[in-house]
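Propose amino acids for all 71 sites.
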């Protein structure tokens, strides 16, 4: 799976061919955040991240993690 654009500001897209059952967003400092997720289609999701502080984050789905930057 992948997230884009990276870096981003308001909206982050997640494209995954595998089923997304749980998604965790965590700052580099270890703080967990809730984000609104809208399913666009079977493989594409839109995450609203405008309320998150500027910084580096980790998005975890299952046992895989990706780094993402909010500017």
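Proposal:
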């Amino acid at each position: 799976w992948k997230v884009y654009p990276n870096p981003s500001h308001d909206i982050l897209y997640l494209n995954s061919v595998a089923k997304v059952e749980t998604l965790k967003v965590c700052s580099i400092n270890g703080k967990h955040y809730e984000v609104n997720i809208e399913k666009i289609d079977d493989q594409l999701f839109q995450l609203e991240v405008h309320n998150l502080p500027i910084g580096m984050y980790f998005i975890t789905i299952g046992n895989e993690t990706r780094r993402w930057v909010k500017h």
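Residues 37 and 47 are 5 Å apart (CA to CA). The mean pLDDT is 95.
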